[in-house]
Design a protein that fits this description.
The chain has 271 residues and is of the alpha/beta class. The protein has 3 domains: 29 residues; 114 residues, D-Maltodextrin-Binding Protein, domain 2 (3-Layer(aba) Sandwich); 100 residues, D-Maltodextrin-Binding Protein, domain 2, CATH 3.40.190.10. The strands form 3 sheets. Strands 1, 2, 6, 7, 8 and 14 form a 6-stranded mixed beta sheet that branches. Strands 11-10-12-9-13 form a 5-stranded mixed beta sheet. A 3-stranded antiparallel beta sheet has the order 3-4-5, covered by helices on one side. Strand 3 and strand 4 form a beta hairpin. The chain is globular.
């Protein structure tokens, strides 16, 4: 009898734990619809990628992409965005695990991402990176990085540019130093921990103006591409995805995209 009671209790405890884990997944990963028919979507944004996406003094998401999302949220009454600021690695993992419904973080298309996720049908910006070095460096472009240390994030799309360069220059490749997702690559350059990184010009300009970092961008624009919102693969998200695309089209047509880009990035990169 005692043994029977023990196993019944064990089974009930296991069921309780399992239901608790399942409930946690639902709260964190699956969007919900309230009594008014408004669906809440969990949207991942950057947390240190100024001026694109960062946390302001009040602890709220700020920058070009949060401003873009708030305007899109205003135009789609059927949805409500809840923001989760994370570094790039956390954003990708959040989407893979189902914790997030969508991420907006200056990401372009590549084969690996297209196998795992859905891309929105409308790009909201065109972007690229430049070699970023110390202000007194003699480096003038990618070719001068042979044998030099270059900070990279394993998830960034511009890895393909560096990999192609190293494949063409096996005798003296660029020495890639992979960094933690939360690390600031421009700061790593400014403090001499690496000799270069690849960064977007607007990002570097902010570091120069607001943080006094003695850095500069050199050479041509690399990895120039259109960037898109990325959605987890879930049939229930098709309708919000299409509504998002329509809002982007409207904002491009009425000039809102260009206005936000100029306001936050200093130039119109939305066309």
């Amino acid at each position: 009898m005692k043994i029977t009671k023990f196993w019944i209790a064990a089974v009930l405890l296991f069921a309780f734990i399992l239901s608790g884990c399942s409930g946690s997944d639902t709260a964190g990963g699956n969007s919900q619809t309230d009594a008014d028919g408004v669906r809440t979507l969990r949207v991942g944004v950057g947390n240190t990628f100024r001026p694109y996406a960062y946390i302001d003094r009040d602890g709220a998401p700020a920058g070009f992409e949060p401003a873009l999302l708030r305007e899109i949220d205003r135009r789609i009454p059927e949805v409500r965005f809840v923001y989760e600021p994370l570094d790039m690695t956390g954003l990708i993992l959040g989407l893979e695990s189902g914790r997030l419904d969508m991420i907006v973080y200056q990401l372009g298309k590549n084969a690996e991402r297209e196998q795992k996720f859905w891309f929105g049908g409308e790009s909201y910006l065109r972007t690229g990176v430049q070699v970023t070095v110390a202000a007194d460096s003699g480096i003038t472009g990618l070719a001068d990085l042979r044998g030099k240390t270059l900070s990279m994030n394993p998830s960034e799309s511009s890895n393909v540019v560096v990999e192609a360069f190293n494949a063409e220059n096996p005798g003296q490749p660029i020495n890639v130093v992979y960094r933690d997702g939360a690390a600031d690559p421009v700061l790593l350059v400014a403090t001499g921990k690496v000799e270069a990184c690849l960064a977007q010009p607007a990002q570097v300009l902010v570091k120069q103006q607001e943080n006094g970092m003695q850095v500069k961008t050199v050479g041509e624009l690399l990895d120039a591409q259109a960037v898109y919102p990325i959605w987890r693969r879930d049939e229930s998200l098709r309708e919000p995805l299409e509504a998002f695309d329509e809002a982007v089209r409207q904002m491009r047509a009425d000039g809102t995209l260009s206005r936000l880009s100029t306001e936050w990035l200093g130039e119109d990169l939305a066309q």
